Amino acid sequence: MKDRVLLFINGDAPKSFPNPKNYRLIACTDGAFHYLKNLNFPLDKLDFISGDFDSHSGKDENIYDEKFIYTPDQDKTDFHKALEIILEKGFKNVDVLGGSGGEQDHFLGNLTVAFGFKDQLNIKFYDEFSEYYFVPKSFSVKGIKDKMVSLYPFPSVENITTKGLNWPLINGSLSITSRIGTRNFAVEDEVSIEYEKGDLLVFIGRNYL
Hints:
By secondary structure, this protein is an alpha/beta fold. The chain is 16% helix and 37% strand.
């Protein structure tokens, strides 16, 4: 049985939606509820809508009242609080739409939130251009030949070796203050990455859900 969660948050609205049947749980933050409604997403498929409701009051959606979870903690973002709910419900794999676009401080904040959950949840972001996620110290992905692959240290990575990229790294180092690994691309069907220390965010050219 599928154990994936689909979570919509309040960045740019997706241009298309994945099949709801691929998910056991579907949720959104209160800000994302606006665009889902406007884009005619089947709101009955939502399992919960969470947030502090500064973006949406819920007053005109009484039919969905039972799905609203009020999370007023101003020390955490709505994305953070939604992930806490998902974790409490026992899920591990989360596909996030709406994580980028809009105000760029929100985008950076979303990456920071995901970083904080990387040891508890497998979070993948999807937008119009790419999918991106934090990867473990030994990682491989197949079926991406000719796709863009960007390596972004968060904030640094040591002794990194890659295979299958046009510009490979061999025991190299990456840092946001000196050298990053963006705009590379896969020359083989499978790309593998290994590194010894640090944390790495990988972007792969758009791969539809």
